[in-house]
Amino acid sequence: MAMIDPPEWNGIAELVFIAIYTLEVIVKVNARGFCVGRFTFLRDPCNWLDVMVIITGLLTLCVELDEAYVLSVLFRALKLITVYPGVRRTAGVFIQSVKRLAGVFVLMMFGLSILSLIGLQFFIGSLRNKCIMMPLPGNLTDISWATSYSGNNTGNMDFVFQQYTDNSANYFYRHGDADPLLCGNSSSAGVCPEDYSCLKAGGNPNYGITSFDMFGWSLLSLFRIMMQDFWENLLQLVLRATGKTSVIFFMLGFFPACFCLLSLVLAMVVVVFVEQDEDNVAEAKQKEEEFSQILEAIKKREEEEGQVSDGDDFTQKKDPAPHKKSSAAETMSHEQEQTQVSGRNPRLCSPCWYAFANLFLKWNCCGCWRRFKQCLQAFVMNPFFDLVIVLSIILNTVFMALEHYPMTSQFECMCALAELIFTGIFIVEIILRILAMDPYGYFKVDWNIYDFIIMTGSLLDLFLQVVDGLYMMGIFILLRVLRLGRWWPTFNLWMKTIWTSVKALKNLMFILFVMVFVSSMVAMHLFSKDYQVHVHRISSDNTLPRWHMCDFFHAFLIVVRILCGEWIETMWDCMVVSGQTKCLIFYFVVLIIGNLLVLNLFLALLLSSFCGSSHVPEEKRNNNVKIAINRIKKAMCGTRTWICRDKKAADSKKDKEGVALHVVTSDQNVGSSRVPIAETEDEFKKSENEKEEVKKQQCDIEGKITEVQQEAEDENHQGNTPEACCWDSCYRCCPFLGIDTSQGKGKVWSNFRRTCLLIEQHKYFEIFIIIIILLSSIALVFEDVHLQHRSVLHTALDTADQVFAFLFLLEMVIKWVALGLKKYFSSFWCWLDFVILAVSLMAIAAGMLGYTEMGAGLTLKTLRTLRPLRVLSRFQGSRVVLKVLSGTLRSLGKVLLLILVVWLLFNIIGVNLFAGKFHHCYNETSGKLFPETEVNNKTDCLFLAGAQWKTSYINFDNVAVAYLALLQVATFKGWLEIMYSAVDSRQVEDQPVYETNRYMYLYFISFIFFGCFFTFNVFIRVFIDALDLQKHKIFSLLNIFSFNFVLYFHLYFGGKHVFMTKDQQTFSRALKNLCSKPPVKVVPRPQNHCRAWLFDLVTHSLFEVFMVVLIFLNMVALMVETDNMSEKAEMILFWFHFVFIIIFLIEFLLKIIALGKQYFTSCWNILDFTVLAATILALFIADVAEKYFISPVAFPIFRVARVFRILHLFHFTRGIQRLLLAFVMSLPALLNICFLLFVLMFSYSIFGMFNFAFVKKEAMIDDMFNFETFGNSITCMFVITTRAGWDSMLIPFLNTLPDCDPDIENPGFTVRGNCVSPAVGIIFCTSYILLSLLLVLHLYIAVILEAFNPDESEQLSDDDLQMFYKTWRKFDPNASQVIQHSQLSDLCDSLRAPLRIPKANTVSLTHMDLPRLPGDKIHCLDVLIALTAEVFGEPGERDTLKAKMEEMFGSSSLSKDPRELVTSTQRRKQEEAAAMVIQRAYRKHHRHTEGGVALRNGASGV
Question: From which residue to which does any coiled coil extend (predicted)?
């Protein structure tokens, strides 16, 4: 099936397989039956798949199905899932989880539809604006003159002009672009070159697919933004066509909304997965309990049978056998328990093997040898021996990483010699270990076996170096790095994560593999012919593109690319060659199902690692390497006791000094030191002494927290008493500093310090400083490339800079005096203020001396970009996020080091594979590569005129550049060009050939799977653990060293939110109460008959459904708008909208008459009124406002606002409401993180504007995206925040001679050159990518964690309870708290919303399963709990809700008295049904009996 051109014997093979499948079905039918019965053939859905396989197989043999042959391929491939029961069960669980995601998918589609309508209204037809060469006399570019030909009075000129503008030969194309250059007529839009005019003509970019001209394309564009696939290109097109102000829609509208939708989808997927896993665990426990009960029953039965058979002689002879069996079973179970405890499976071997092992594998020949072996064993087990081995592995890895291109012969000889030396060291290590432990003991350790295999392979590799074609590229030598997992727990965690995923998640991984395999085959059979026939539509030279589906391998690559998030470009080609509908269906099915499978695999891996870590023994000890390092520290620093005492004293001093960020605290040190240790290593165990040390550290932490709290209370009591100015050492060295503050000058100085302290603590002083910081930061915005042409602004900014510096200096002096130097310099924020002020003062001094634009002066000017960071210390929310961020960074240090080491392995492999091969011969005339037939290698290129031997910007010539290449592959930005260079590479310094080495794709796929997927999983695991430590560092000290997966997803439970301040937590809870509770009062029904009739009408559910249908129709009317509609179609749509306005106006009048002033008590009604008023206002004043006041772009907002009436639907969907409530609850945390992200973006934008303003314009840097002004700079940083386009933005920074000119003149500016430092550019881009990625990860975590808030069940309001009590009194006037069950139906019908269950309600009341008391009565509390669970509770929440309600009314007079329950409503219903069955059976038997008697009587009469 995977062959596009099957051989001749394929038909015979098809017949054989069909015969086998048919025989399987026949056997199953004979064994299980066909359809009658519970376990028959057709009752199993998987058997239907077998039938479809046979039917489609026979059809393919009889009829030519063409594309329908895909069904046969699909059914046969899916049959792989049904073969294995575990895979089949996992697939069923996955399908059930997908069903539970229906609500969030509805929310996502609704949100995308709203955004698509907004994009349709704002950007319709804008992407058709192109630069067209106009043949006007005198090279005029008067657009109004040109467009006059399009009128009706132009005769034949209309056709000629339209034909001219539609001709693509008249468009302006930039070099290397397939689409013409877009432009706009606004002031900030793209500008055309000379002799070109901006006109609306032709089609849209990317084969006419990228546009907002109709709802479908607009929806595709918004989905592309949400998935962040090449969306930077869409932003570039929109900004060039509509102006730079359109970035506001993306920055504040499209992108945040898409982020919210995507985060809610991820949150729901996580919630569903965890709930599904909990259900599976509960089901497994239930099966275990049932199995144990069966075993107990069997055991009791055997005991009873044994007691009964005591008196029988025959049975007495048979008694010992069961006892033997039971004893044997007990022995086997005991052995199994011992096996589980020991963790090893005993393997029974023959006695010959044990004799052989004792003779040849255990070397105990003589006493001298045993003494020598003991000495050798002491040497091998010495911690310093392991330390030497670890250092050797590290040095060996460093020498491998030093290989680069080009290398001198001396350097190659040095590397080869070092490799031989390290190989000898490791061989000696293995020999010593074997001699010390004997072969029998040596090979019992798994790591020793791995070491032996690696060294054997290394020796074989060294011997095969001389044989061409057999050299393994040092793969065994490189695998030595994995030996670090023996001593490095984090590395061991990564290795065990891979092993766990393969072992425990094999079913889910197999399903993912089947999905990729099936998708690849379907793509190949569905699109291969279309690519071969219609390739001329996407290729000018009729050659297949790199990404096609003509064979299985390339189809497999496209499916992998889709799963990596790169799908839009290949889908464009597919839609052109094969049709839009077919490609859209295929791509979206693969995209959605594939991403869900990958996400489920990621979560399953994360959950399994969490759960697996809980089974690791708690007793662990440091490994030999740590012991050796600790001994070295003791030797260098003194005794361990002195170190601990000195460290403890230093920590206590730090805690007593000021209000610092506390970047390093003792409790966090404890948490950070325990994260990966021995969670992964079963070989090492902790000693009892270290357990005592842990307890001591916990006691120290508790004591320290108590001290800090006591000091905080003391500070509150002290009021405005200043602390000591200097440190104690200063007073000892300079006694004159200690003056008497009770009299004389000392008293004056003390009063002055008190005054300064009052000023510093005053809120207006803080507000003033914040304003100054904001003004100084805003002043940096104006220092762009145009500043030198604005002398007045330049002078004003210089003066303002000096004023700001003076004010900040005054602030610092006041704080010095008020707080003292000791307390001032103990705060991280004060240190930041001090450094920024020092830089500003030095920059001002350098400017006065004339060194502003050179050397140190330019560096000091650049460092002023740190100025906006001062604002972070003034807002508590940003400080909270920074504190969490600093804590997670400390805990993630080992994981980041792990990522560097894992990537180093792939870097070394990449250097060995591709070093010196990412070079090519470039034709400077045509701008293309020379074919290999003309230029074969570098030597041919150097002797060819007009040719240049160039190197790719990103290559694998050394490990440092390889890290940058792998970072682009990991972020899926720029990775395609890297893979193209790899698959085209041949030998060193050879001209590349198209896909001559295409299986190099597998190298990058392996890196994505092992180097990205698993490392990111470990990263998330430790990241969540770090967040847990941040929350529980004070409230859960006793559980610091516990590792429970539930804690990681319940950071909100019963404690503070790590991303919120206390005020924000209070606001979040108030917001939740406001959003989750129903209206306080129910609108009363009017007394007037007419208004009462209208009230019943507008409050009826059918009326609400009718209005929802109209809103849908209104939404559809907005969707059908397209670009270039005819006047008739526009008129029809106008009257449609007018009719909808009239209907909504009538609805408003009906509701305002029926509800009166109560109409405005509902938020939905206020929204309806606002939308209706804005729409009517837009109808009447559109022409006037468009002409005099408002831009016409603003009016579509009123039309789109009507669509928000669809939010009425959310009243009926509880799952969506819960998701939205979770997002609203996380808003304060999101705002804190977004504020920090904005400050980071602002600072980097200023830095880029100062350093990269004149960089060479190429790749993504052009006239719209650059660093010349602050607006352009922050737009670039906004794009990079999403990891989009940073590879293209990095390319101009990497230019060196001759690709850039440092002496070229920039017209209109005094600055010369367009080169920048590549190192600065790389650090600039990579640092921002990593920091922004960490903050965005915090954003997703904040939303996902809020979705796990358990306190999400809605509760009844006080008015609802009062309404229930009043209604209950009507049926229970004696206040007996019970009523007859026959009155329950009338009671539920008499209640008001939300507790009302209208008649007929018999079935609903039966399912409520109310307890029945003696006399067929029911209790009021039972009814209230059941109604509340029916209205507000989800399935399975009845017990929790009952406990809450009983706790709520436990002390009230309404509490239920303890009574003996007779039955329940559901059980009574079952009893009645059973009684009816018994009665029918009895009547039938009675009739049959009477008939038989009558027949006998008749016979006897005859």
Answer: none
